[in-house]
Amino acid sequence: MNTKPAPTRARLKPEERRAQPIGIGLRLLTARPLHEMSVDEVAAEAAISRGLLFHYFPAKRDYCVAVVRAGGCRLLLHAAAPEEGTPEERVRGIVDGFVSFVRRRKDDCVAVVRAAAGGDELVLEVFEGNRRVLADRVSRAAGIHAPTPLHRLAARGWLAMMEEMAVGSTADVIAKDDLVDLLVSSLEQVMEQFASGRH
Prior knowledge:
Number of helices: 9
Distance between the termini: 84 Å
Helix content: over 70%
Structural class: mainly alpha
Shape: elongated
Oligomer: single chain
Mean pLDDT: 86
Number of strands: 0
């Protein structure tokens, strides 16, 4: 009788094996709070042992931090300014990338924000670090290369508005391009006020 050999599981490189449970965690995060995520469930879905999962992430907290960091990195990858262009064009590149990503991956974005609000200091530190990177990126794109603390505060406040509008709006409320126009214009107004001293 002819019997087919059992399929062999493809061997992954260590960095691929480490990335696999992070991707699973990002997906699971959309359905439950971070602290309720089961490392046993993650390990089973990744087809690895619990021991191997803890080889890559020494504790559940390390794993949770890695998941939130990965979610933030995905957003930062898309919310990037073009290398060339006017300040308005460079800011528009960031805003368009941010809004497009959030509208495509709304559940993921909401889950990462919710995880940061869960109270773990390390998770919050990663989330806040991503916000600082994005605020500085926006300031540089707008032509402010030595932002003052007030500039940074304004940029973070504007980012909070952008995040809320990107998450809360849908295409039937406002088209993506119109939302991008609105956000770019609002940042210009805020930064002009600080540049002219009207604050």
